[in-house]
Design brief:
Radius of gyration: 20 Å
CATH architecture of the largest domain: Sandwich
CATH superfamily of the largest domain: Regulatory protein AraC
Order of helices and strands: EEEEEEEEHHEHHEHHHHHHH
């Protein structure tokens, strides 16, 4: 792998409190499992024999495309041999994005892309050049300590987010290259909108008029998870975000849809290697340091 900038990493936790920038080239396939993270991700695609799977939808990017994922979506790249894989990746803390927008919500593109299951952008030529030029400017100042570099980093990030939102809201659905199953899409949307309710295979098969066998087979094919595994992962994501927003472990448990606190706590620790109480304590410690 050739590093043009930054460090390719399989970690899914940010180190910086604002954003992180990577520009990498892989000549051999990289293996990345399904994952989610607590921040927003922007990926500018340059080349590669790659598909991106986001919540069961398989996107086929072209040079200059942009992929957006928010902090609730399960996703992964599928990288195959045959072409050099080059991309720019930007990780953004949601709080930092909110601070840049002032009275305007610069996170709208991430919120809308998740809600509408529409993660791939194919920007118009003018916007595509603008985004790539801004990434080039940001790359120049990312680790610079020259006078004004911090202000420039903030300014370039703000401009990137403005143009990403413009790109998203000016795009047409037919501009996407995506494979999906419409019924699985409906089920995924329903699950995410009803995490607090019962979401057993019996309930879902009855609601969507599918046999349990067919639902199980199609869901696994497109999602890479069983229905139960997916529901648990999404409930854990919801609980973790609630904890990071200031909820107590009991409140996060109630909001996420688990029926039993012991099972919730055990599943949370198995997934994240930390207890819900420890996440709350980390949040309180950071708050005291910043006050």
């Amino acid at each position: 792998m050739k590093q043009l900038f930054g460090e390719f990493t399989d970690r899914q936790e940010m180190i910086r409190p604002d954003f992180e920038y990577f520009h990498s080239v892989n000549r051999e396939p990289v293996q990345v499992p399904y994952h989610s993270h607590d921040f927003y991700e922007v990926l500018l695609f340059f080349s590669g024999n790659v598909d991106y799977v986001v919540e069961g939808r398989v996107y086929h990017p072209q040079q200059g495309d942009v992929l957006l994922t928010n902090n609730r979506e399960l996703h992964r790249p599928q990288v195959r041999e045959g072409q050099t894989y080059e991309r720019i990746v930007l990780w953004l803390q949601p709080g930092y994005v909110r601070s840049l927008g002032g009275s305007e919500n610069l996170a709208l593109c991430f919120e809308a892309s998740s809600r509408q299951h529409s993660n791939l952008l194919r920007p118009q030529e003018e916007i595509r050049r603008k985004l790539q030029n801004l990434c080039g400017e940001l790359e120049q100042v990312y680790i610079s300590d020259a006078y004004g570099s911090a202000a420039l980093r903030r300014a370039y990030c703000m401009q990137l987010l403005v143009w990403l939102n413009r790109a998203y809201f000016s795009a047409s659905p037919e501009e996407q290259s995506v494979d999906c199953d419409s019924k699985v899409d409906e089920i995924v949307r329903y699950i995410n909108e009803h995490l607090k309710e019962e979401l057993s295979l019996d309930v879902l098969s009855a609601r969507f008029y599918l046999s349990k066998y067919h639902l199980t087979r199609q869901f696994k094919k497109y999602m890479g998870f069983s229905v139960h595994q997916y529901v648990v992962r999404k409930r854990l994501i919801a609980a973790r975000l609630a904890l990071q927003s200031g909820s107590t472990p009991g409140e996060a448990f109630a909001q996420s849809g688990f029926a039993d606190y012991t099972n919730f706590s055990r599943a949370f620790r198995a997934q994240y290697g930390i207890s819900p109480r420890s996440v709350q304590e980390e949040k309180l410690t950071k708050g005291r340091k910043n006050s």
